[in-house]
Design goal:
This protein has 15 helices and 18 strands. The protein is of the alpha/beta class. The protein has two domains: 105 residues, Urease, subunit C, domain 1, CATH 2.30.40.10; 290 residues, Metal-dependent hydrolases (TIM Barrel). Helix 2 crosses helix 15 and helix 12 packs across helix 14. It is globular, with a radius of gyration of 21 Å. It binds zinc ion. Zinc ion (ZN) binds next to loops.
Amino acid sequence: MYDILFEHATVVCCDESMQVLEDTCVGVKDGKIAYLGKERADAARKINASGKVLMPGLINTHTHIPMTLMRGLSDDTDLQDWLQNHIFPTEDRLDDGIVKAGVDLALLEMIANGTTSFSDSYFFMQTVAESVHKSGLKANLARSVTNFGQEVKLLDFYSTREEVELYDTWHKAEDGRILVDAAIHAEYTTSESLWRELRAFALEKNLVLQVHLSETRREHEECIEKYGKTPARLFYDAGVFDVKTLAAHCVHVTDEDLALFVEKGVSVAHNPMSNLKLASGIARVPEMLKRGINVGLGTDGVASNNNVDLFEEIKLCACLHKGVSGDPCAMSAAQALRCATYGGAKAQGREHECGTIALGMDADLILVDFSAPHLIPCHNPISNLVYAARGSDVCMTMVRGNILYENGVFLTLDAERILHDFKTNGTDRLFSS
Ligand SMILES: [Zn+2]
């Protein structure tokens, strides 16, 4: 007997062939996908998924969720002005209580929009991990480290020590639902002694390493001026890419950089909305995919997006690369959807547990209601998911067979209290003076 059986579902598997199975049953048992086929079977609960699409949960490969506190704080400015005059001064006033308020709001938003796993690098990560733990979501969490040229010894430098503490407390918590990654903030905020320390730590513990890479032209060119190398070449030569790396943005990378990604198996987190909003540019994703580089999608922090609705990124990813190349075949709907699911799972080192619908995979599933006017008719479910659906069409979010959200109701988090606390413990305190 299954714990849950979805009946009459249109199943978008997001496997290699992007199979779509019509009128199909999916059985969930002990948190896993235990059945996929036409036969009905006994289940503790049956969910009639007629008129709905069942697909793998979306995976956000690059975000900084406490930044919900800064949603709409400063728009329409360039990256340097935005960071130096708006974001950094606000971040200086953060504390655990304020961050918790921001994190919990972000978790509600992600769950309601069909995200089941995300990669995050920021600070106050113990607080982030505690809330993720309660929420039921999966996450790869990293203490983002900057050292600005200071000498770093792993256990003697405060932020790398926090990373080690995060690892000791949370890595593989809940049987791997929470994983701890390492994170070098970016080339322009760090230096060699930090790369050496985090590289050794990540290799020893077999962690993924998150890094911002060649996000802006200025960052890319100043690195060449300073070192005579691109950021990717610099990290490659320092051995950083010996670690399983997830590089965010990669907007200004060269052909040679892409060859290094191929050689080292670097995954890219593509953040089309954030890159457009901050006028950073457009990553050459079709070229990356052609070369076999794994690409996941990310929203980046809410201060530069301004939401964590991955459906927006999927549509943008599918359309943007057509527009800049003049080729409507540059990026297909299926490719964009695969990036948001399997590509994300692979970037997180989770491709054997989630990102596709197949027997034995974790039941990290979402149901999308296709009865809304903007989703009728449905000639092709993948087309509707990519070009017509929105995050708000998600009517159920499940991680490891555990339903986190159903028909507007949050089952693991107290939405009413979170919304109240966001103001009183979050924005009221952060912006009071
Ligand atoms: Zn970022």
